[in-house]
């Protein structure tokens, strides 16, 4: 059996993993533009308001359910990109919403949010994202520098 040198094997492995990464790249991913009004309707129809309020929107409460506890939109310090919003909806456990205690929004690392992938159409997804995105308001974080020495 021919002996393969370690550096050659390492190089081959590296090339393979680079290949893998490229195949799974999200570069070039683009959905068509959605309709925010239809998105609001889908949001209510799918009862996302069971767990969510949307900053600046007056959404009806769902009778006999606990009040919603995760706010979507509002002032954020970092742009919520289109890609992040889509990921948050179709892969909720990928990254949990910031600003909540883990045990409040997840269990064993899994988001408490339902996975809608078998029920939500692509059209509903892109409309909902179109509805949500303008509600995020990017603000520059305020830093309070302490000046030393303090007297
Ligand atoms: C049973 C409760 C529940 C329902 C219903 C629900 N969600 Fe969520 N959702 C959560 C929780 C809890 C989080 C925070 C944890 C996380 O990021 O997954 C969350 C997070 C999100 C986030 C990310 C927020 C952020 O700041 O990162 C988006 C966007 C979102 N949900 C959209 C939706 C949409 C759209 C629907 C309806 C199709 C929906 N959710 C239905 C519980 C729910």
Automatic annotation (TrEMBL):
Keywords: Heme, Iron, Metal-binding. This is Cytochrome c domain-containing protein. GO terms for molecular function: electron transfer activity; heme binding; metal ion binding. PROSITE patterns: CYTC, PROKAR_LIPOPROTEIN. It comes from the Bacteria. Residues 34-136 form the Cytochrome c domain.
